[in-house]
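> forwarded from #structure-qc
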């Protein structure tokens, strides 16, 4: 089970990727792609999650579009500044396992698009992803090092689920019976994006800081 499903099964309003799971029922999405909205918010100088206040957790913050890709998870520093009380997950796993699953994801779509975009061979793309894997982890760890309590590095194959449960408490209560490890294709979605966890303040002044969450 992917982390998104765990949070959803626990009653947390969780958004993954484009938000396709919610586009029929979430009024704020209005059938629009959530990652495109976040990207446009950032480009326009708005808070990244403007218009998405009904969601409390964000996973898989990327989207492949028009031969390119939107990678909102890379904006972790901006997100951390916009939402100073939010918490983040650095979802990780064995690099070789992740590379294999990413190359096979969606019947090889990610790999084919990366080859078309870069002109690289299979090996070249995999080497690029491997370098980026280490670089992204190092950047996230370095950024959050002076901010204890804001980041949990969660190895989806090894970290005890109780660590995640403690990390998100008390604002989110994870029902850990829904968590299951093992060989699951969803693992690929539980690694690359940095996940953002927020619990929006219910008593905020509607005229000030409309997007400021309280601790998650």
């Amino acid at each position: 089970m992917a982390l998104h499903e765990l949070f959803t099964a626990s009653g947390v309003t969780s958004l993954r990727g484009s938000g396709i799971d919610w586009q029929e029922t979430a009024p704020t999405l209005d059938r629009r792609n959530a990652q495109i909205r976040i990207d446009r918010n950032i480009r326009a100088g708005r808070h990244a999650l403007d218009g998405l206040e009904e969601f409390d957790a964000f996973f898989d913050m990327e989207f492949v579009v028009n031969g390119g890709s939107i990678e909102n998870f890379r904006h972790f520093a901006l997100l951390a500044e916009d939402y100073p009380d939010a918490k983040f997950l650095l979802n990780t796993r064995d690099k070789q396992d992740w590379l294999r699953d990413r190359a096979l994801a969606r019947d090889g779509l990610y790999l084919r698009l990366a080859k078309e975009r870069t002109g690289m061979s299979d090996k070249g793309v995999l080497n690029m992803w491997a370098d980026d894997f280490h670089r992204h982890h190092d950047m996230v760890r370095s950024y959050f090092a002076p901010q204890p309590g804001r980041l949990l590095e969660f190895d989806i194959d090894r970290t005890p689920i109780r660590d995640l449960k403690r990390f998100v408490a008390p604002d989110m209560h994870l029902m850990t019976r829904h968590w299951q490890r093992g060989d699951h294709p969803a693992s690929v979605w539980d690694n690359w994006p940095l996940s953002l966890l927020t619990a929006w303040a219910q008593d905020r002044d509607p005229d000030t800081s409309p997007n400021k969450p309280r601790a998650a």
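QC bot note: Strands lie at 14-16, 57-59, 62-65, 68-71, 87-92, 151-155, 195-197, 199-200, 213-214. The chain has one domain: 3-93+133-214.
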